[in-house]
């Protein structure tokens, strides 16, 4: 302890420069600083190493991200060529810079995001350029004194209005970037109009360099391993559905199994958390997806908004599974005999529910109307009804089983305290909770079924080959029945 | 029907240009087009009107957004002055444009976001500029043939690497904008280095104009009605806590009240949805808050991350309240007599739980350690224990009450079907669900208590004046006990 304190003291005295009070003769001030530096370097190297390791894992997990980086490098190198080649350079002069800037700013991971930015940038530049030139002409007429005032006021007004428009949700979702570019271009045109005489030429330059940049971005992003926001959203919803099914399965298995839990099961059970947290990702992807042209199995007007509804209904299920999960991990549990009694019925109900979810996941993946979803929903509902019936008949049988018939009942009726048989409801309670949550989850899966059916209708999914869609069967009634 | 079909037909024929088949003599093709145009205009006017109405509501709801717009206009007008004033213009030449661009791109709603972008922009520009000039000097040495190749490869490599770094979560959270500006500046310096001889001067120009732009933004954003991301996060968490309390209160009141529901109550009950959806907002605010200097009651190193933990624990509660809400709105309910029996105990437990939440909300708002939170938590736990006890004693009393003693029990024990007394558990079930969810919510409120206590410890909240903090009381144990 004393040694520690003295070394700290020595350190404090050494730093200002004095070396007269060094207590350990074998290491001087330089040595100390060297050790300190080595420590710092070590920490930095370690941190950089961790970031690199992290980066490596990200690259291995999704090689498309690496490809995206190569695409950005490629697009920038190509656009630099415009600059290096003298004839092109002479055409555009110093404005070739705008093409480089456009590529850097506009190139995004998904095709949809790139389209969104490109279209916004081109339209906003055009509008703001036209408006800026118009106002400039008006200002020109009103003399040198008024000109800066008119320009200043117009910049103030339009910039404020465009900034405010970014707060309106519907504008923000579609034209946020456009509003920013509008302000930028309008200010630049107004401001430089004061100096640069060839305003039309400047506007023309800027538009054509931006056109070069955007078309290059669109070409590169679409030709080399395109990442479609729509596909991503589609896969995300599909994966979330599978994760939810797995997680529900994991919870029920965990609850009713007899031996100790495994690591795999624990991991599987956590899948619902992804569903809970994917709202922001879904929304941004749906926003970008609507800018994408027809690709693969998706049309230009694919009902992307319906995916958000499916996502919401999945999250609805996930809330319940979250509660179920906390029931399962709670320490107070129903006695094993009771659990065993319910095990079969619960496993049946849950497996039918999971079947429905898996069938929906297949419907989404294949984009074909499922021929037997109605049957599966009916099976699920039937199993849930059976489970509810079992719950209805529970208190009598259990009451008899644990308290051994009439005498005990009498004793309880007379309010005898301290009876050695605990009151049944508290034993049944955890099980009742689990079962009622399972029933609730099945109801909410009904909501998912309806959302997926609506998607199938809106996107005109074809019927699957291995059967006919049974449209006349009253499934919606069945789903909302319980 | 026939009329409709013919008018549709006429329309189709008219549009290509022919007027020979017009069925209604009083309106020619021009008239039709005029009607169509009027219709289109009407729709556009209506849409614009709705957007404006929307904008008006947004402005009224949060006047700071309007102030933000004025601030942006102001900053842009000021920066335009640099351009209009000849002496300054002559110093910076065409590069004054960079100052305008910086203001447009960097000025954000909150001070934190503006700082984040300013600092990222300045550092990234400096780093990329230095690196670009360095590589340019190396390329210069290797002859005219190799120079474009070296520059092209370096652009490719650095752009790819910087793009990839944006996929690493820790980098993305802090330096996403910086990485983009790094790519931008590096490409511009490399590319323009090929032509412009005065590379150092260009770099210097860009740095100084960016410095002017960023310092102007920081001044304007901090001096006129600053919106601090930290304060926003603080208020959001505080509001969410209140909303959660209100929504829990609303649910329980709605369930146990006897007369019809009111609109106010319904609205109050929906508060938990805000909590469920505020994750993204919390995260972005926490990200920005850490860039902010000391302001008001918040230090530079205020533990913003702990707010995220409080937010997560609040969402944890909200999941349960969501399930509770769906229990309440379900059609199958426990009989009124039963509900009345439990009403008092449930209301007591919920009001104590709500008290705890409200006390926590006050702790957060005042940033003072609460003197009686431990007592309130103990009260809540006691009320919950009472509720659980009531539930334990429920089946016996209720069983006797509904089935009238031994005979019925016997009949049930013998498996007689079709008895006119429904089995008790199905009657009790909805109530049991509600009560067990209330118990679960109380447990999760315990999680919120712990998170807020941790915040009070990290941020060194002072004790409230009206009492002493009772640190020795074993609250954590109490909280995790039930």
TrEMBL record, chains A, B:
It is a multi-pass membrane protein. It is found in: Membrane. It holds the Pfam family ALMT. The chain crosses the membrane at residues 66-84, 96-115, 122-139, 145-165, 177-197, 209-231. Keywords: Ion channel, Ion transport, Membrane, Transmembrane, Transmembrane helix, Transport. InterPro entries: ALMT. PANTHER family: ALUMINUM-ACTIVATED MALATE TRANSPORTER 10. Belongs to the aromatic acid exporter (TC 2.A.85) family. This is Aluminum-activated malate transporter 10-like. It comes from Gossypium arboreum (Tree cotton).
